[in-house]
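Could you help me review a protein record that somebody else here produced? Do not assume that whoever made the record got everything right. The record follows directly below this note.
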Amino acid sequence: MTSILPTIHLRAIEPEDLDVLYTIENDTKVWNVSTTNVPYSRYVLYDYVANAKNDIYADKQVRMMIEDEHHNVVGIVDIINFDPKNMRAEVGIVIKQDYRNKGYALATITRIKAYAANILHLHQLYACINKDNEKSLALFEKSGFIKSNELKDWLFDGKKYHNALLMQLFL
């Protein structure tokens, strides 16, 4: 049985998104599944929004807001660590709490895969996911990513190190 994914739109970050961006970037629960471990000020985030070129070759990343069919922001998706020589990049996604477990993450990854292949012409997307994060691992596997390697003591949560799984998708 195939589930129907919600309709989403991806768009560039606008200055009006500062409050949403500030809330997501400073959510300490998200820090344990990412490489972030310090709070961001509104000024730093505003400066990023104001100065990002939205060109993956200039910025080495692309950040986009995820909107539902009513143009409510449901999260953020990042393509980061762009390597132009090898045509690969890391993907990260954060869905706001009220929108989790409703298919928005899967819909976003589906859209990002097409964008990475057809617009950016990437050869590969990858994600490093905490080995204990079963929901994220299942999401990326459902999206076609494969587990390729275990990275020992890769993520530090402030108290202990966790192994991560490198998930890869060849486009």
